[in-house]
Design a protein that fits this description.
heterodimer; A: 320 residues; mainly alpha; 12 helices; B: 148 residues; alpha/beta; 5-stranded parallel beta sheet; 5 strands
Chain lengths: 320, 148
């Protein structure tokens, strides 16, 4: 009896609340807000906020063409793998005060899971057999290498700050520490790390200045060039979910411990913070910049962003 | 119910792919003007797609030169169903001033069924907007006629 209840609860976690349904709903909301605010920044009226939902539903109703050169299983499986891993990540991130699954090394699991959607894009693109996808995936790989280093440094800085000499990688301990000592964002030694993390978000999601892999005007949307119909819709949904996962991770790492005690209210506050972060880190940068070249992106991340994260790590290592 | 949602979405999010078949660039500039802040086609969900695989509406401009004819046919074949074809300007309709040239193989109707034809040399952005919106409505009808 107890076992059955546990399994049902786990299914609800995976499919509905912090998992697939909740993540995709909030992801589509964030993507809609991003497009609307971007339009207002450019003095346009812009699409309605539910536009990403329309796009997703429309793509579900389109014909799916599988190219001759493609490996059918990999080609259709890649977007599903990305979707599943993104839904899984949300189980480890405390949404407000709500934690679905907790362990002693959540951050390491999140770090691994978060690379999977990028890898799925690479695998799917390379299986489509288009030369444009070839260029796109090579750029995607370089982008991943570029943001992965500062990302790991940020996580190390957080782990050292919270755990002292023995690093703590548990999201629950990080949240508890922040509830006791104040959010990490308000500790001055962590501010460079927060800025680095804010700059990692757009590269991970792939928005304007850092969307070299999916440059639609020069290499026809890179890895997605041959995709059409439902798999393309899933990839678009993955991008929207990444927005929520990344901003949610930032909120949990740097602004955790803000609790009212009522779970529903906490979740609403969490989503509001994610929306503000989306506008701050993605929309604003998108509105004022043009696309970078891949070598400039790499240089920017391994000098400025990694430098910021390293500065924080060194400060924290000296006990500040 | 799910089918109805999908059918309605076809009207709300038409993605455009633009093919230039030897156009003088006048119509192409006007099409881009439709997407700029002044006319802002994005408020109806229009978006310029980078590849024909993502497109719902294919906009063809130019009188179809011998060089571009084969590319045009191949590109149109790559667009997934349901799709709409819009001819932009007078060139794809009649050949315009290029009619009778040895290197022009128009009109567009010879190669594909044209759903909406926007006339003018060049058409005004308002006319292009209306043509595109009509195409989106035809797109919805085509989507409704599909089985699933």
């Amino acid at each position: 009896m107890f076992n059955v209840l546990n399994i049902v609860l786990l299914l609800v976690f995976v499919l509905i609340f912090p998992g697939a349904l909740f993540t995709s709903a909030v992801g589509l909301w964030l993507a809609g807000v991003d497009r609307k605010v971007l339009a207002r920044m450019q003095h346009r009226i812009g699409p309605p906020i539910r536009q990403p939902l329309y796009d997703f539903l429309k793509l579900m109703g389109k014909e799916t063409i599988i190219p001759h050169a493609a490996n059918k299983t990999v080609y259709l499986g890649a977007p599903i793998v990305g979707f599943v891993s993104l839904a899984m990540i949300m189980l480890f991130i405390p949404v407000g005060g709500f934690v679905a699954v907790s362990g002693s090394a959540d951050l390491v699991v999140i770090l691994y899971l978060i690379t999977i959607p990028g890898v799925a894009l690479i695998v799917g693109g390379s299986s489509s057999g288009s030369p444009y996808a070839g260029i796109g995936i090579s750029r995607e790989m370089v982008t991943m290498m570029a943001y992965e280093l500062p990302f790991v440094l940020v996580l190390l800085a957080v782990a050292r700050k919270v755990g002292g000499a023995n690093l703590v990688f548990s999201m629950e301990s990080i949240a508890a520490w922040q509830a006791a000592n104040g959010s990490l964002l308000f500790h001055w030694s962590m501010i460079p790390a927060a800025i680095a993390m804010l700059l990692v978000i757009p590269a991970e999601v792939g928005t304007q200045p850092f969307d070299v892999a999916e440059a639609e005007t020069e290499i026809c949307e890179g890895p997605l060039v041959e995709y059409s119909g439902a798999p393309l819709g899933l990839f678009k949904l993955n991008t929207a979910m990444k927005m929520f996962v990344m901003t949610g991770l930032f909120t949990a790492l740097f602004m955790g411990g803000l609790r009212t005690g009522i779970v529903v209210l906490d979740v609403v506050i969490f989503v509001v913070i994610c929306t503000v972060l989306t506008i701050l880190s993605m929309t604003t940068i998108h509105a004022v910049t043009a696309r970078l070249k891949i070598e400039h992106l790499f240089k920017f991340y391994w000098t400025f962003v990694a430098g910021m994260a390293l500065l924080s790590l060194v400060l924290v290592w000296f006990g500040l | 119910m799910f089918k109805k949602l999908v059918d309605n979405s076809a009207l709300k999010s038409p993605w455009i792919y633009h093919i230039n078949t030897g156009s003088c660039n006048g119509c192409d500039i006007e099409l881009v003007a439709v997407l700029t802040p002044r006319y802002d086609a994005e408020r109806f969900g229009f978006r310029l797609a980078g590849t024909p695989r993502h497109a719902d509406i294919v906009v063809v401009s130019g009188p179809i030169t011998s060089q571009s004819k084969e590319r045009l046919i191949r590109t149109l074949a790559q667009v997934p169903e349901p799709k709409c074809v819009v001819s932009l300007g007078s060139c794809p309709r009649s050949g315009n001033v290029f009619k009778g040239s040895y290197s022009v193989e128009g009109p567009l109707e010879k190669y594909v069924h044209v759903d909406v034809s926007v006339a003018g040399c060049t058409p005004k952005p308002e006319a292009i907007m209306e043509g595109l919106y009509k195409a989106a409505q035809i797109l919805k009808e085509k989507r409704e006629a599909m089985k699933k």
